């Protein structure tokens, strides 16, 4: 593998062996600020416009130039946005020559490039939540993807907790469900899983405590009661008088 300007260059067929884009791992050593480009193990500094271009293509995949320009520079007219895109592409190609692929009106990152966000999505159920997508970035496309990935991760974790519960692995189920509650205190489905674990272990008092916590949170934050499925979960396990008072 030869080198130009300190940046490793390989063949297109093996580009995935030496380039990684980090757009998700806030707090990770590779990307403590939420974005990093590593080439052959070396961190490559990029200007902000180049970072945004790489992140957009890494997340969205191949896109029309006009769509990329409109997403990255929505506050200027189409002509100026396209001019900024051309400048960002030119600078990026000088830094990492084979990172971009241009095909007519479309542009994309190298086909075999590794983007950490896809690794996280594939392993979502088996890994803890690793932080928000591109913290500190507030573009509309980032906000949408940030929430989508957050919900994907939380749902995957809840599914994993439910599987542990069904298999009688109560400690594992409880740990995961409590982690989801910590990340999203108003997520009733996660609270319900915590309650189900406690009931499976005949810890009715713990289940009641979790219900009271949820009930107070929903009342203070949203002015609503827990849903019928959550109330029903406890109704058959506690005295009718207490059920009438609490549920």
UniProtKB/TrEMBL annotation:
Cross-referenced PANTHER family: TRANSCRIPTIONAL REGULATOR REDD-RELATED
The record's annotation in SMART domains points to: BTAD
Query: Residue ranges of the Bacterial transcriptional activator domain?
Result: 115-238
Q: What is this protein called?
A: Bacterial transcriptional activator domain-containing protein
* InterPro entries per the UniProt record, alphabetical: AfsR-DnrI-RedD_regulator, BTAD, TPR-like_helical_dom_sf
Q: Out of the domains of life, which is the source?
A: Bacteria
């Amino acid at each position: 593998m030869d080198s130009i300007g300190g940046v490793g260059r390989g063949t297109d067929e093996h580009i995935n062996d030496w380039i990684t884009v980090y757009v998700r791992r806030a707090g990770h050593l590779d990307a403590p600020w939420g974005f990093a480009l590593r080439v052959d193990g070396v961190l490559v500094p990029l200007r902000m416009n180049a970072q945004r271009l790489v992140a957009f293509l890494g997340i969205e995949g191949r896109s029309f130039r006009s769509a990329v320009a409109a997403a990255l520079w929505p506050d200027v007219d189409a002509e100026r946005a396209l001019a900024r895109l051309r400048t960002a592409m030119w600078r990026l190609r000088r830094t990492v020559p084979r990172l971009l692929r241009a095909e007519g009106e479309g542009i994309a990152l190298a086909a075999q490039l590794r983007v950490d966000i896809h690794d996280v999505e594939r392993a979502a159920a088996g890994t803890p939540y690793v932080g928000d997508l591109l913290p500190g970035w507030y573009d509309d496309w980032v906000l949408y993807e940030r929430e989508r990935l957050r919900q994907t991760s939380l749902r995957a974790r809840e599914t994993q907790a439910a599987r542990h519960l069904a298999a009688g692995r109560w400690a594992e189920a409880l740990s995961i469900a409590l982690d989801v509650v910590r990340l999203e205190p108003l997520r009733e489905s996660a609270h319900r899983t915590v309650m189900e674990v406690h009931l499976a272990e005949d810890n009715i008092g713990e289940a009641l405590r979790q219900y009271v916590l949820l009930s107070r949170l929903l009342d203070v934050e949203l002015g609503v009661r827990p849903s019928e499925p959550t109330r029903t979960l406890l109704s058959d396990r506690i005295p009718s008088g207490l059920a009438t008072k609490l549920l």
